[in-house]
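Researcher: We're teaching a course module on how sequence relates to structure. For the next exercise, students receive a sequence and then see the predicted structure as tokens, so they can try to spot secondary structure elements on their own. Here is the exercise chain.
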Amino acid sequence: MISKALQASVFFRMHLQSARIAILCSVLWIGMGQAVAQERVQLSDGTHLNVFIVQPAETTAEPSPLLILMGGGPGNASISRDTSMWLGSGFAQRGWWVAVPVSPNNRAFRGIENNQKIDMLAEALQQRPDVATGKTLLAGISNGGISALEIARRNPDSYLGVAAVPAISSSSFDNKPLAGFPVYLRIGGEDQLGWADRFDETVAAFTDAGVDLDAAILDSAPHMFRMNWESLDAWLQKITTQ
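Model: And here is the predicted structure for the students to work with:
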């Protein structure tokens, strides 16, 4: 039987392939205004992490806020690169300094060891003069969304919030560290992995834990969907002005 994680990876790859035409059409614009660069960033434990970086579309005198965005499936280089061009560029248009890390072991950023690498990555990137210090925003797609929630649970005071597009959760007890913490959750109504069927369960797990939740089902949308920036912009405005 194919595992749910493998199914998620397969569906993620299928949808990335179908989106490649749109991505390629946007590459010229990205090349003109928002270059996607790949770097090998040294972490405080002496290890390195490969990261795709999209800098803000407009240069400002002030450092830009940091967003760490995690792709779906195993979080490998191909998925992370495409995520940086597709979703990362949208955040960069809105003034975010975007980092899309590549999983060191093809397990997304799940588990304690991988969770901690994101904490260390934020610390390393915020030493740069063009990156603002303070709380970092986390975002993730599918497995990346679940990773983002795991990371936030371990150290919620370090993060502004999580944009999980999509993600699922089942335990209000596990989510208790996120009481009062902002989470933006969207799941496609036609999600091929059946995640829409777990929407109510996920909402209950967050609500019972006291999470500051903005959640919705997107009618007829698949596992990967086009971002509703109007809705997300409102949430970003809320969490950055609190």
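Model: If you want an answer key for the exercise: Confidence is low (pLDDT under 50) at residues 1-33. The first strand starts at residue 36 and ends at 42.
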